[in-house]
Amino acid sequence: SWISVPSTADILLHLGLSESVIAAACARVGQRVLHVDRRSYYAANWASFTFNGLLSWIDDNKVCTYFTLLFITPVNSFKQQDQEECAPLAEDQQILSSDGEPQGEEQLSGSAPTQAKKKKISYTKIVKEGRRFNIDLVSKLMYSRGLLVDLLIKSNVSRYAEFKNVSRILTYRQGKVEQVPCSRADVFGSKELTVVEKRMLMKFLTFCLDYEQHPEEYQDFTERSFWEFLQNNMLTENLQHFVLHSIAMVPRETHTEEGLRSTQHFLRSLGRYGNTPFLFPIYGLGEIPQCFCRMCAVFGGIYCLRHSVQCLVLDKESGRCKAVIDTCGQRISCSHFVVEDGYIREEQRKGVEHKHISRAVLITDGLLLQSESEQQISLVTVPPLEPGAPAVRLVELCSSTMTCMPGTYLVHLTCPSSGSAREDLQPVVSRLFTKPASAGEEGTPAVLWAVYFNMRDSTAADRSGYDLPGNVHVCSGPDAALGSDHSIRLAQEVFRQLAPHEEFCPPAPNPEDIVYDGDGGQGEGAGFSEAAQAEEGAAEEAEESKEKEASQESSPVEVGEMPDPPPAPLAEE
């Protein structure tokens, strides 16, 4: 092979969010970092793809054990609750067969004139505009006072990305989608709550903000569920629903203290950057690992995609890993090896049991809840539709996030798996995305394309569950939680083992203040410095390309009377 990588490194890693953070932190304190991955893209299971890139990923992972049960769903498979067929597609629209190829065309029924007014989006159009999509494999939001945002600010990595506020929080209740009042202004402006309910809710949320100071209020419920605690506080059914499913976002059986912590975390994140607690990165969540990769590259880290580790070389006396052999047969000496759980063979697992996450990605033609502005980023919570079913979380993204083409919306559905992704999520899709029941009724959004898949969740496994040398560190993939706190805590924990006396991700200087060593003091001579400069130059060119594309795409986005706010910069208040 013509590819040559350094033969010595302090840290050898695969790609993922935790691994990318670890790489940036280690490079920042002077460690020699080599990042290799068998994939052809950054961020591993946290990656974002264009539409055509996602189709290629689907083909590549049909037989992969990490991603299972893939379905590409025809549009006309969605039913109304009365089991009637959805209105067929417009004349120039096409649907996808199970293998992803367009098939068949049908005339739009004249019984639904409200739908005829919508701009027709065909499968061919989606493919043609595929580069406008940035579709995440994992769907998460960023709590504005969460560990990830705090780390982006502290490390100065936030300068590599832009963010937008999640504009509203919605919930599915009594057969319809409603807006959740969560801030003080929302509560007192809500038309869904009575005056008495508004006072009750504000009193309860005020208590949750500093519940630790009032243990007498919940000490009798420490071993009981949060749901029982809400009932004991005499909250109405409306308020119980909002608090449990849309603010705390926990199951009914969750212990009271955990429910209170979740509610407090939500409330403390309110108002830092907007009217909701959440931020979303422009171009998708896959930008975040790449931001940390760029920081690592600036400080000398080397990246090599389509390149992987074949086996470990162990020291006979200590049993530690002293080198690896890559797929080209090259020996790479390393003091530590950080690896993603998906690379570990089954024989090296000691009874590790994995959970799974059910995921679906939809491309739709309208908002779930209409508003004056078409540019909305919404978090939607759907409680279990029947006993034993999981609660489902939806994130609805508009074109101003640069994740979908104008005229379409990208909807991510996520829940812990109780069956296949299709079994877990299609009941929710069937209720929320149907054609209007009659010509005079406001139409709900139509699904133009959908894919279902299950992802493995290995976050419950600990170090003792793997039969590996002490200096081989395993990082889990994404979990089903809304935030990324687990991945950041894991990165901090691994970094303390790699560099126990160093600060975790100290602030990086501004680019103009960085001086590179002319004689290449790191690693393989000048290789590390040259690679860093090349990586930085490539990243700058990519960023300029994205900014140019963003400026071209912003003009066709139709915004209502309420203009969409600009991207929210990350900075301390």
UniProtKB/TrEMBL annotation:
Residues 527-536 have a biased composition (Low complexity). Pfam families: RAE1_2_domI_C. Residues 357-480 form the RAE1/2 domain. Residues 1-18 form the signal peptide. This is Rab proteins geranylgeranyltransferase component A. Residues 563-573 have a biased composition (Pro residues). It is found in: Cytoplasm, Cytosol. InterPro entries: FAD/NAD-bd_sf, GDP_dissociation_inhibitor, Rab_escort, RAE1_2_domI_C. The keyword Cytoplasm applies. The keyword rRNA-binding does not apply. Belongs to the Rab GDI family. One of its GO terms (molecular function) is GTPase activator activity. It comes from Scleropages formosus (Asian bonytongue). Keywords: Cytoplasm, GTPase activation, Signal. GO terms for cellular component: cytosol; nucleus; Rab-protein geranylgeranyltransferase complex. Residues 502-573 are annotated as: Disordered. Its main location: cytoplasm. GO terms for biological process: intracellular protein transport; small GTPase-mediated signal transduction; vesicle-mediated transport. Substrate-binding subunit (component A) of the Rab geranylgeranyltransferase (GGTase) complex. Binds unprenylated Rab proteins and presents the substrate peptide to the catalytic component B. The component A is thought to be regenerated by transferring its prenylated Rab back to the donor membrane.
